[in-house]
Amino acid sequence: MNRIRGKLALVTGATAGIGEACARALASHGANLFLVARREERLARLKSEIEAEHGVAVRTRVLDVRDRDGVFALGRDLEAEGTVPDILINNAGMARGLDKIQEGRPEDWDEMIDTNVKGLLNVTRAILPLMVRRNRGHVVNLGSIAGHMVYPGGGVYNATKFAVRALNQAMNVDLAGTAIRVSSIDPGAVETEFSLVRFRGDEARAAAVYRGFQPLTPEDIADAVCYVVNAPEHVNIQQLVIMPTAQRNPYVHAKDGV
Q1: Residue 257: which pLDDT band, with cuts at 50, 70 and 90?
Q2: Comparing C-alpha atoms, which of 247, 250, 228, 230 is closest to residue 239?
Q3: Exposure of 30 by Cβ count < 10 A (0-12 exposed, 13-18 middle, 19+ buried)?
Q4: CA dist., res. 102 & res. 58, Å (int)
Q5: All domains in the chain, ordered by first residue
Q6: 134-146: pLDDT as tens digits
């Protein structure tokens, strides 16, 4: 049964990786979209492609989730026009570097915390009250296995994903008594632009992260998102951990010839 068709999904970080895959997958199930991202040209191209392929309505807004004023303005605009997303995909996130904490760059810390934690809070604070007033909706937070176990050099990124895990649990507690569902999708190794961003465009170093095993694809995570949001209204899948078969935790990979 398709319970996604006709719903409105707001996706952050929509122009690459998991965000783009979620947008395309939700549209393939008949969802209308509101796509939020920083890169205007990519947004315009994605909108055109999805509308042509799936015949759904796609709206866009160029916006950085770290821009609290801009995010809150989006919430006010949606409220003024009576538009309430049925689904919110808090996808925007990033990592910078693999430095030990004692050697870390504070500007990298700020970027990760401001995007992964404050950005998620900004968007949730802008959109969730609209859902609460209507007593309907589903928030999906993109977490990570980095929020379950720390690894060397990942301390601050780990901390941000532990925070996402805590916020996911807190939202569920705070929304008790409502019909609003909250889910966290926590992937392991997914081959996206993630490592390229982490290593500031170093393609060789980014590629080495995924060498020797088959990582997850953004489409794998989008499938999981669609599964979660398509569940019956009385079913709340609060957390889903998904890893490639070759990976069993952040440390244990079965890599061929590496």
Answers
A1: low
A2: 228
A3: middle
A4: 45
A5: 8-187+217-242 (3.40.50.720)
A6: 999 999 999 999 9
Cα 195 from Cα 208, distance rounded (Å): 9
Which residue, 217, 216, 218, 219, is CA-closest to 246?
Answer: 216
Q: Write out pLDDT tens, residues 18-27.
A: 999 999 999 9
Token pair listed for 17: 């990786």
Q: How many CB atoms lie within 10 A of CB 221?
A: 25
Both structure tokens of 142:
């993109």
Distances from the Cα of 155 to the Cα of 84, 103, 196, angstroms: 36, 11, 18
Find the distance separating the first CA and the last CA of the chain, reported in whole Å: 43
Cα→Cα distances 252→192, 239, 243, 246, Å: 20, 21, 11, 8
Hey, how many other C-beta atoms are within 10 angstroms of the C-beta on 28? Answer: 15
Torsion, Cα of 228, 231, 233, 236 (10° steps) = -50
Instruction: Tell me the sheet residues that pair with 243.
Output: none
Residue with token string 């992964």? 116
For the record, the structure tokens of 96 come out as: 């910078």
Which amino acid belongs to residue 213? F
Identify whether the C-beta of residue 75 lies closer than 8 Å to the C-beta of residue 120: no
Catalytic positions are 157
- Which residues sit opposite 140 in a β-bridge? 89, 183
pTM for this predicted structure: 0.95
